[in-house]
Each structure stands twice: as C-alpha cells, then as structure tokens.
Amino acid sequence: MIPEHSTAIAVFAHGSGSSRHSPRNKYVAQALNEAGISTLLIDLLTADEELLDIDTGQLRFDIDLLANRLSVITSWIRRDPSTQLLHIGYFGASTGAAAALAAAARHPETVEAIVCRGGRPDLAGPDLGRVRAPTLLIVGGSDQVVIELNRQAAAELHAQYRMEIIPRAGHLFEEPGALEHVAILAREWFEDYLVLSKRRAA
After folding, report:
1. What is the dihedral of CA 97, 100, 103, 105, to 10 degrees?
2. Which of 104, 181, 188, 200 has its CA 20 to 30 A from that of 162?
3. Long-range interactions of 51-56: CB distance < 8 A, separation 24+
C-alpha cells in the first residue's frame, strides 16, 4: 500500500506461524498507512517451505535465509519506480525481527529505522553489532523470557535503540489495547526516523 505523497515505506518481516495475511501485522500496517507511511507485507518462505516448516520448525530459525530474502526485497524496492525514492524501514515480528536486523546490517546506508514486535533479536547474532538503524524493541510485559532475550540483544547493539515493555501484554499482544499500543509506538518511531527527520534535514 502506497498512500498519496508517501515518503517512506515499512517492510514487514513476520515470524513463525504467520504470513502476510496476519491480522496483527495488517492492523499495524493500516495504522502506518493512515499516517502516510507505505507498507509492504510479504512472505519470506514459499508455500512449500511453509508446509515443511510446519512439520520441522527448521526454516523459521534459518535467519540467514530469511535475511537474504529480505535483502533481495530491499534491492527490489530500490529499483522499482514506484518505491525507489522512499525511505526504508523494517517491521519484524518473532524470528522476523532477527531477519530484519540481519538484513539491516547488510544495508547500513539503505535501512533507516527498525521496529521489532515480540521479536527474537538475539537470533541475529554477530549482525547485531553491525546494525546502524535506530531500533525500537517492543515486548509484552508478561513475555518474561523474550524480555530477557531482548535485553541481551540490546546490549550488543551499537545503534541507537529503545526498549518498550507493554504492561500485561503477552507474546501475541492479544490483550485489550495491546496491539493498539504497538501500532502507536511503531508509527511514532517511523515518523521520527523515516519521515520527520527527513523533513527536518530538508
């Protein structure tokens, strides 16, 4: 979705058991669209790979594979006439957060902001130290294991970052008001680092 006069795009990298049809990601994407930010929701695995992953759980943790495909998408955005001038950010969920961080490390001059929702940024490994884009880590307050994994990953980041813990929210942010909170935080982060900062620079 490319709103009129949009100057930025958020690419969604979802995690295991999700897809471009995820109602959670679509909700956040709609909130970004209403703020004038373009969005691209795309599956990083083929249909056959998704079926294999359901049985084995193997591909969802192949961060290098997912990051490589996100890198290809990023290069495509830079070539396509309808998107080549847009400032690029990533929105990653679950293992998609690790893929977003790893891909951003490979495009330090292109990817300008990252938002991770209930993510596993720790799985990005050594790529964490090479990320240059300002990064927002959003975690549910009831998701204690993931909170600790996010804290460990944040300690490895050299980029500007902020960690937001949403009280009483679980891993999927299904509690009343939790997803709305995620959408607001994501919109504000992208506005600050993809939209408003570019206007100030101009």
Report:
1. -80
2. 200
3. 53/16
